[in-house]
Design a protein that fits this description.
Number of domains: 2
Strand content: 35-45%
Largest sheet: 8 strands, mixed
Number of strands: 16
Shape: globular
Strand order of the largest sheet: 2-3-4-1-5-8-7-6
Number of helices: 5
Radius of gyration: 18 Å
Distance between the termini: 10 Å
CATH superfamily of the largest domain: 2,3-Dihydroxybiphenyl 1,2-Dioxygenase, domain 1
Order of helices and strands: HEHEEEEHEEEEHEEEEHEEE
Length: about 300
């Protein structure tokens, strides 16, 4: 599901402003859920394995995504340091972290976590390649090590060294993470960053009209893509996580009813998929994809 052609998505870039300050989510003393159950020793560097929504209204975001995607929620912590774990069919897939400061121009934002085998080494590689540390690597019981860095364009991206291994590859179930897309000032520089930090292989698009776009893969499976961001005064580099849904039209019909907005209308993309981008009521942007004819971009690196 390669979205690309970023010039079609100006609303996404206007909405995806950087969060001024980011800290790793805290669960008020409660343990974060392990990434894998049962635990394995298998790791898949560069795979999108988790995401956190940093928002000023955790309750509204929880209600929205639970109703939209059928996710269930569990609140961890106490004393104002709550963290919401969202699960898809009983499998934890994401979290919601409450931001206390409401800064104009800084809406809610999803930050994805890519799998790494050595968080400390990956953070060092990020700094060496022009990134910045937004939240230093920290150990979490049952989870492993997590950190947040800014990539070479300033996009926040999480690193997760799982102590229980990474989820198996295969067709993601509806409600699970499917893909990520980076919209960059310099796609080549950005692609090199993701190669050096996450070990992702970089391949140039074969279509001559899209020679400035790149596919990121590991273990022979496409994990994400990098495309140039469109020009414009209010346009900023952006990162977009994409969730698979069973029926895109039915899912999108719920969005305005639940208080969200459709930023990019559904349309056909590669490998027989249909894609759209939505804005949740708190300002977070998310991609949605429906497979047609069992299309899976991971099988088309």
């Amino acid at each position: 599901m390669k979205t690309r052609s970023a010039s079609r998505y100006p609303a996404l870039f206007a909405a995806a402003c950087l969060i001024a300050s980011i800290a790793l989510p805290m669960a008020g003393g409660s343990a974060l859920p392990p990434l894998n159950q049962p635990a394995t020793s298998e790791h898949r560097p560069g795979k999108l394995v988790w995401a956190d929504l940093f928002t000023t209204d955790a309750a509204a975001a929880t209600a929205f995504y639970s109703s939209l995607l059928g996710w269930t929620s569990e609140t961890l912590g106490s004393k104002g340091r709550n963290y919401v774990v969202l699960s898809n069919g009983g499998v934890p897939v994401a979290g919601i972290s409450q931001r206390s400061v409401k800064t104009p121009g800084h809406p809610s934002r999803w930050i994805g976590y890519l799998a790494v085998t050595d968080a400390a080494a990956s953070v060092s590689a990020a700094v060496k390649d022009g990134g910045k540390v937004r939240a230093p690597s920290r150990s979490f019981p049952d989870r492993g090590y997590q950190a947040i860095v800014a990539d070479s364009d300033g996009n926040p991206i999480g690193l997760l060294q799982s102590s229980t291994g990474d989820p198996a590859d295969g067709d993601p179930k509806p409600g699970a993470w499917n893909w990520f897309e980076v919209y960059a000032k310099s796609p080549k520089v950005s692609s090199d960053f993701y190669h050096d930090v996450f070990g992702l292989a970089v391949a140039t698009e074969l279509d001559a009209s899209r020679s400035s776009e790149f596919t990121l893969s590991s273990e022979g499976r496409a994990r994400g893509g990098v495309a140039p961001m469109p020009s414009g005064e209010d346009v900023k580099p952006s990162w977009l996580g994409v969730i698979r849904v069973a029926d895109l039209d039915k899912t999108l019909a719920k969005v305005p009813v639940l208080g969200g907005e459709i930023l990019v209308s559904p349309h056909a993309v590669e490998f027989g998929s249909r894609f759209a981008i939505i804005l949740d009521p708190t300002g977070g942007t998310l991609g949605l994809v429906e497979y047609i004819d069992s299309a899976n971009p991971a099988n088309n690196p």
